[in-house]
Amino acid sequence: MMSKHLIAPSILSANFAQLGNDIEMINKSEADWFHVDIMDGVFVPNISFGFPIMKSLQKLATKTLDVHLMIVQPERYINDFKDTGANILSVHYEACTHLHRTIHAIKEAGMKAGVAINPHTSIDLLKDVIADIDLVCMMSVNPGFGGQKFIENTYQKCTDLKNLILQKNSHCLIEIDGGVNEITAPKLLAAGANVLVAGNYVFSSKNPIETIASLKALQ
Ligand code: DX5
Ligand code: ZN
């Protein structure tokens, strides 16, 4: 039997003036992970937040911290993210000249290693690292902002990635990031997705706890 998919609300869409309340809400909900988006204003055209917010999450969050680095040369900060509570650390394929080395450095630091890919990056490029990684964070929007429109090509890419994972006998999970909602989520699960990130859909809803539960309840 396939194990149940995981839900990872994205803190990027939280209310930072009341962050403690939103962290509490996710703690109490059926969410599995916290998805934490770190942006440097260089790799992506936006700046989000850094270690002070990581430390607040470390203190208050009771679930896995799934950290998505949208920064250049992410290898510079592996230990800092470990020290501020990251459990899973994903780096962008497009930001790493020595991706294999960076993946292994993340694992040696004691975290699960993920690779994030932009919408234009072919999954074929992952074939020589897929057996080494724990997660592929497949971007279904161009990274940088919450609340963007889902790119439809992602369904096919998800199916192709699932096939690659099976072919290479990898235990890697497929995480979909961007534009996840009640329309896209069921189709993504049918295409083989294991983890659904949801920012805007959760935090702009009237009842985020129920919205998270409805994503978790999908078959
Ligand atoms: C985008 C981030 C996403 C973002 C998803 O660069 O990586 O994690 O928060 O947001 P929604 O679910 O609003 O598309
Ligand atoms: Zn993300």
Task: Chart the SSEs and their pairings.
Blueprint: E1 6-9, H1 19-28, E2 33-39, H2 51-60, E3 64-70, H3 78-83, E4 88-92, H4 99-108, E5 112-117, E6 135-139, H5 154-167, E7 173-177, H6 184-190, E8 195-198, H7 200-203, H8 208-217
Parallel strand pairs: 1-8, 2-3, 3-4, 4-5, 5-6, 6-7, 7-8
The protein binds D-xylitol-5-phosphate (DX5) and zinc ion (ZN).
Overall mean pLDDT stands at 98
* Count of domain modules: 1
Helix content: 25-40%
Within the largest sheet, what's the order of strands?
1-8-7-6-5-4-3-2
Overall geometry: globular
The separation of the N and C termini measures 12 Å
- Bound heterogens, unique: D-xylitol-5-phosphate, zinc ion
**Main sheet attributes: strand count, strand direction, barrel closure:** 8 strands, parallel
* Number of beta strands: 8
Secondary-structure element order, as H and E? EHEHEHEHEEHEHEHH
Write down the Rg. 16 Å
Structural class: alpha/beta
Q: Which percent range describes the beta-strand content?
A: 15-25%
Q: Report the total helices.
A: 8
**CATH topology (level 3) name:** TIM Barrel
CATH architecture: Alpha-Beta Barrel
